[in-house]
Design goal:
By secondary structure, the chain is mainly α. The chain is built from ten helices and two strands; from the N terminus they run H-H-H-E-E-H-H-H-H-H-H-H.
């Protein structure tokens, strides 16, 4: 049954990814009539309606060889990539992200775990929001409120289910649902508050807006879903990934402006699936390795200095470009 659920989750993810492509494209349109998420899919080039049999995730793009059947214009490879990415995330969530929403007993009876089903659905929605927000931010350097605010509200609402944001404390006299709801609220406060503080400090240091307020709302949403510890880990990982990608982009003459949302999303996915392993590496394995290797402190100092110089160069370039 586990394999059936994983395959079904991947297929569902591919279908959701197809819908996310619509969300990503329509929310970037300036015409309010084109921003509606209702109605059938249309070709972005000629506006012709796309029949369902040509809108099959990934496979439809491959069969059409990357070109629209209606007008022959190229279809960006991003479309099947978003579908495949969402399918992979849903599969990972089904394979080892949460408890199975249903099981089959020895007498072949189907048993549904309502709490696990709610948790899985909430986290699947969370991952979908991260995908849509990441690609929109890449294109526009904006994180639309129409996604972040409902996402934050959903994260707080999902906090009543133990296992979504964890539990705050272990007092047996307090109901698990209340401890989970408190964990979600504290996570949103820490995630949003930490990002707001970094934004305010950066604005003072650089005398201009160093980070968009959309990043604050995104981090509040992440904290609401994952809890305060995962929110802090997300910020750390987002900064590291952003520095790496920004440095590579700088070396190859890429854009100076760095959308931070996608890197926070990568950090959030890593915190969701690998949070315990990353914490173990940072605070147990790495210190033990340092104690066993006397020269490791110099390597760490050199790496940190290089990263600091790289971030300084990126910020200076971004300021000049702005």
């Amino acid at each position: 049954m586990g394999t059936v659920f994983e395959v079904g989750a991947a297929l569902l993810g591919a279908c959701v990814g197809s819908f996310l492509n619509v969300v990503i494209w329509r929310l970037q349109q300036h015409d309010p009539a084109k921003r509606s998420l209702l109605g059938r899919s249309h070709c972005p080039h000629c506006g012709a309606a796309i029949p369902w049999f040509r809108n099959v995730p990934v496979l439809g793009w491959a069969l059409l060889r990357g070109r629209a059947a209606c007008c022959g214009q190229p279809i960006a490879a991003r479309y099947p990539f978003v579908e495949a990415l969402t399918a992979a995330l849903f599969w990972a969530l089904a394979a080892w992200g949460t408890a199975a929403p249903f099981t089959i007993t020895a007498d072949h009876a189907l048993v549904v775990n309502a709490a696990a089903a709610a948790t899985w659905s909430a986290l699947a929605t969370f991952l979908s929001l991260l995908v849509a927000l990441s690609f929109i931010d890449f294109d526009t350097q904006l994180l639309p409120d129409v996604l972040t605010k409902p996402g934050l509200a959903l994260g707080l609402a999902a906090g009543v289910w133990p296992g979504v944001a964890g539990e705050l404390g272990d007092d047996p006299t307090v109901a698990p649902a209340l401890r989970s709801a408190l964990a979600s609220f504290v996570g949103a406060s820490v995630g949003g508050g930490l990002t707001w503080g970094i934004r305010a400090l950066g604005s003072v240091v650089f005398r201009r807006e160093a980070m968009g307020f959309g990043d604050v709302k995104l981090m509040a949403m992440i904290g609401a879903f994952l809890g305060w510890q995962a929110a802090m880990l997300t910020m750390l990982l987002g900064c590291v990934v952003g520095a790496v990608f920004g440095g590579v982009g700088l070396l190859f003459g890429g854009a100076a402006r760095i959308p931070f949302g996608p890197y926070l999303a990568i950090g959030a996915v890593a915190a969701l699936f690998l949070g315990d392993e990353i914490v173990e590496l940072l605070f147990v394995t790495w210190p033990e390795w340092q104690r066993a290797h006397a020269g490791s402190q110099w390597a760490l100092a050199g790496t940190a200095s290089a990263a600091l110089v790289l971030l300084f160069v990126l910020v200076r370039r971004a300021r000049r470009a702005g």
